[in-house]
Write a structure and sequence with these properties.
Number of domains: 3
Shape: globular
Largest sheet: 7 strands, mixed
Strand content: 5-15%
Helix content: 55-70%
Radius of gyration: 32 Å
Structural class: alpha/beta
Number of helices: 26
Distance between the termini: 41 Å
Number of strands: 9
Length: 594
C-alpha cells in the first residue's frame, strides 16, 4: 500500500493546463492499435448508452502522480495520458488554430524530441526512433477509427473532455517514486479497489487534526487485521468458492458497497465499481469516516462470528458452496431476531435448494410424509442427474454426519475440498466404462499391479490368479508397443475375478456414489473397488484430507453385512443409500442437530 496518499476523481478537462514529467526510469510509449481501439470503443459505447445525466461518467484506471515543482511527475499512467493526448490532438487538428484547445504537455527526461513530436506527428519522422513510431501508429489508428463516426465527433469529444475521468492518485513528495513505479509496473501489481478505498478512508482530511494520527493508525491496524484473517484459507473458503491470492478484503468491501445507495451511473462491470461507489457515497453523504469504517467492520465481524460458530460455519459454508451469495445470507441474517432463528432459516433454505420440487420444510405437518418425500427424491438421483445436486447431497451427508456428533469439534474442510477439486465418482466402477486412451489404460494396469503386488488376495481365486495377472500386466506395460487388445482381455479378466457384475441401475444409483479428489478420480476412475479403497486408506494414514463419509464408505462402515472387503456389492450400495437418507432426514427433522 502506498501510504499517506490523496485521491480525487478528475475529468480530462481538469488536466488540460497541467504539465507532466516522465522520469528516466520509465520506458517509452508502447500502446498497440488494439489498445487504442479498445479505449475508443469503450468511450463510444458509453456515449451511446448514457442517459445524459450530470452524474454519469466513464472511469479510467488510476493516474499516479507526485508533485515536482510546477509539474507533476507521472509515476504511473504515461501510456493512458499519452493516448488521450493523441486523441485530443486529433480533435484539435480539425479546427482552425484560433479555436484549438490548450492541451496538457508531457516532458520526457531522457527522450528529447518526443514532446515536440506529439505536437507535429510528422509521418516522415516516425522511423527516427521507436517512440515516434508508436506515437504515429496510434495517431493513425485514431484517424482510421473516426472515419465512419464523423457525425458523432462532437459528442465523443465532449465525452472525452467532461465525462471521461481519471482516478487521480497523488503520493506524498517524500515517497520514493522509483520504488512506487517498480511496484506498480515491474512487479505487475496494479492499484486495486482495496488500495483505493483504503486511501479514501485514511485521507488526512477525514480526521480532526487533534486525533488524526491516532485514528488513522488504529484504522490502518484494523484494516490489516481483517486482511490477515481473510488470508486464512479456512476462513476464506468457508465464504468463497474462488481463490484470490491478495486484496481479499475487497470481498468485504464489495458486500458493503452492494448495500450502499444505488448510483445508476456506476456499472457493476466497471473494474473500479467498489471504489467509485465508496467515493460517491462518502462525497455525497458527509458521514463521519469512523461511522463508515464501523459498517465495514460489522460485516467482517458478522462473518467471523459465523466462522467461529461450528453450526453456522457448516450451514453457511454449505450454502455458499451450492452457489448462495454471502450478501443474500447477510440480508437473511439481518431479518432474524435471534441466532437460532437464523439457523432454522438456513436449514429451510438448504432444504429448498436440495429438494426444489418438494413443499417448503415448514409446510410439512406430517413427519412420516416428509421422510417418504426425502427418500423418494434421493432415490431419483443417479450419476446422470445434475452434477451439482449430487455433489450437494454428498457434501450435506458429510456435514450432517459431523454435526450429528456434538461432542467433537471436527469441521468439514471447505478449503481442502475446493482447492483439491473433489467431485462425485462411482464407488464400484461401471463395467462398461473401460478406459479408452492408452495413457489411462496404462494407469489402470499399474494400479492393478501395485495393489496385487503388496496386498494378500482374500478371494477364492487364490494367489495363482493374482500372479498371472501381475505377470501379464507387466508384459503389456513393458512391451515396445502397447497392445490395447491385450489390455481389454486383461481388463475383463480382472473384473471377472475381483468385481462381480451388477446391473447398470445399481451402478449409477446414489448408493454407489461418493466424493473423490480429482487426482484419485483421474488415476483410479475405472479401478476395481479394492484399489480405490487402498488409495483412500493411504491418504487417510498420511493425514491427507478425506471427507468423513468417503472414508466410511471404503471401510464399509455403512454395510450391514461385510462378507468381503474386496467387493462392493449391490447390498453395500443399498445400505449406503439408507445411511444417506437416514442422516439427511435426521438433519432436516431434528431441531437440535445444529
Amino acid at each position: 500500500m502506498i501510504p499517506n496518499n490523496e485521491l480525487v476523481l478528475k475529468p480530462i478537462n481538469d488536466l488540460l493546463e497541467q504539465s507532466f514529467f516522465i522520469p528516466s526510469y520509465q520506458r517509452g510509449y508502447r500502446w498497440t492499435n488494439r489498445q487504442v481501439t479498445e479505449l475508443l470503443d469503450d468511450v463510444y459505447e458509453f456515449c451511446s448508452r448514457r442517459k445524459n445525466t450530470d452524474d454519469e461518467f466513464y472511469c479510467l484506471q488510476p493516474i499516479v502522480v507526485k508533485a515536482k515543482g510546477e509539474q507533476w511527475e507521472l509515476v504511473d499512467g504515461q501510456q493512458r495520458l499519452t493516448t488521450i493526448l493523441l486523441i485530443l490532438g486529433y480533435f484539435n487538428l480539425r479546427l482552425s488554430e484560433d479555436f484549438r484547445r490548450q492541451l496538457y504537455s508531457i516532458e520526457y527526461e531522457t527522450r528529447p524530441g518526443s514532446e515536440e513530436y506529439l505536437l507535429s506527428l510528422n509521418e516522415e519522422q516516425k522511423d527516427q526512433n521507436i517512440d515516434f513510431f508508436h506515437m504515429f501508429e496510434s495517431y493513425n489508428q485514431i484517424k482510421i477509427w473516426f472515419k465512419d463516426k464523423m457525425n458523432r465527433i462532437n459528442d465523443i469529444e465532449s465525452a472525452f473532455l467532461n465525462d471521461v475521468k481519471v482516478i487521480w492518485y497523488q503520493v506524498n513528495e517524500d515517497i520514493n517514486a522509483t520504488a512506487v513505479f517498480t511496484r506498480l509496473n515491474i512487479g505487475k501489481i496494479s492499484l486495486t479497489n482495496a488500495e483505493l478505498v483504503k486511501a479514501l478512508f485514511l485521507k488526512s482530511g477525514n480526521f480532526d487534526s487533534s486525533v488524526r494520527f491516532h485514528t488513522q493508525l488504529k484504522m490502518a491496524q484494523e484494516w490489516d487485521e481483517i486482511e490477515r484473517m481473510l488470508q486464512n484459507d479456512e476462513f476464506w473458503f468457508f465464504a468463497n468458492n474462488q481463490n484470490k491470492e491478495a486484496n481479499r478484503i475487497e470481498f468485504i468491501l464489495d458486500l458493503v458497497a452492494n448495500q450502499l445507495p444505488n448510483y445508476e451511473d456506476i456499472s457493476r462491470r466497471d473494474p473500479f465499481h467498489i471504489f467509485l461507489t465508496f467515493h460517491h457515497h462518502l462525497a455525497l453523504n458527509k458521514i463521519p469516516i469512523e461511522d463508515e469504517w464501523y459498517s465495514v467492520k460489522q460485516y467482517f465481524m458478522t462473518l467471523r462470528e459465523w466462522f467461529e460458530d461450528r453450526g453456522l460455519f457448516h450451514l453457511v459454508g454449505l450454502l455458499v458452496l451450492s452457489g448462495e451469495s454471502v450478501g443474500a445470507l447477510m440480508e437473511l441474517y439481518n431479518k432474524c431476531s435471534t441466532k437460532q432463528e437464523f439457523r432454522r432459516n438456513l436449514i429451510k433454505l438448504e432444504f429448498s435448494k436440495l429438494f426444489p420440487t418438494l413443499n417448503k420444510l415448514d409446510e410439512y405437518n406430517d413427519l412420516a410424509l416428509l421422510q417418504v418425500d426425502i427418500k423418494e427424491c434421493l432415490d431419483d438421483l443417479s450419476y446422470d442427474s445434475s452434477n451439482s445436486q449430487i455433489k450437494h447431497t454428498l457434501v450435506l451427508f458429510n456435514i450432517a454426519s459431523l454435526l450429528a456428533n456434538p461432542s467433537t469439534n471436527a469441521r468439514f474442510q471447505f478449503s481442502k475440498f475446493k482447492l483439491e477439486l473433489w467431485d462425485i465418482e462411482h464407488i464400484r466402477s461401471v463395467t462398461s466404462q473401460m478406459p479408452e486412451s492408452k495413457e489411462r489404460q496404462k494407469i489402470w494396469l499399474e494400479g492393478v499391479v501395485d495393489y496385487l503386488s503388496v496386498v494378500k488376495v482374500e478371494d477364492n481365486s487364490g494367489d495363482n490368479d493374482a500372479e498371472q495377472i501381475i505377470s501379464g500386466s507387466k508384459n503389456i506395460l513393458e512391451a515396445n508397443t502397447f497392445d490395447s487388445d491385450a489390455f481389454e482381455k486383461m481388463y475383463n479378466r480382472v473384473l471377472e475375478l475381483y468385481d462381480p457384475e451388477g446391473d447398470e441401475e445399481t451402478d449409477n444409483s446414489l448408493g454407489n456414489l461418493t466424493l473423490l479428489d480429482r487426482s484419485t478420480n483421474r488415476s483410479y476412475q475405472n479401478a476395481i473397488f479394492p484399489i480405490k479403497r487402498r488409495r483412500i486408506i493411504r491418504l487417510d494414514k498420511l493425514a491427507t484430507f478425506v471427507p468423513l463419509c468417503t472414508k466410511n464408505v471404503f471401510l464399509k462402515y455403512y454395510s450391514n453385512q461385510v462378507n468381503n472387503m474386496l467387493f462392493w456389492e449391490p447390498c453395500d450400495s443399498e445400505d449406503h443409500f439408507e445411511a444417506i437418507a437416514e442422516m439427511l432426514i435426521t438433519f432436516f427433522t431434528n431441531k437440535e442437530v445444529v
